[in-house]
Write a structure and sequence with these properties.
By secondary structure, this protein is mainly alpha-helical. The protein has one domain. The chain is 58% helix and 0% strand. The termini are far apart.
Length: 67
């Protein structure tokens, strides 16, 4: 085995983490664009709006307050 091409387990875990992050973002994006039978589709540029990044934090914050 050549030392220059060997993968370590840290490399595998980094690739796995990046892959999970990319696929999670794509799922979230496509779910918002094509919501299904119920719900309104968002515009293509919705991640770049001001309110979009804060919607998740607001939902989590209000769920803890209302408990």
């Amino acid at each position: 085995m050549n030392e220059d091409t060997a993968f370590s387990m840290a490399d595998v875990y980094i690739m796995l983490s990046v892959n999970i992050g990319v696929h999670s973002f794509l799922f979230w994006y496509m779910d918002a664009l094509l919501p299904g039978d119920f719900g309104m589709p968002k515009p293509v540029y919705f991640p770049f709006t001001v309110s979009s990044p804060f919607q998740l934090f607001r939902a989590v914050y209000y769920s803890y307050i209302n408990e």
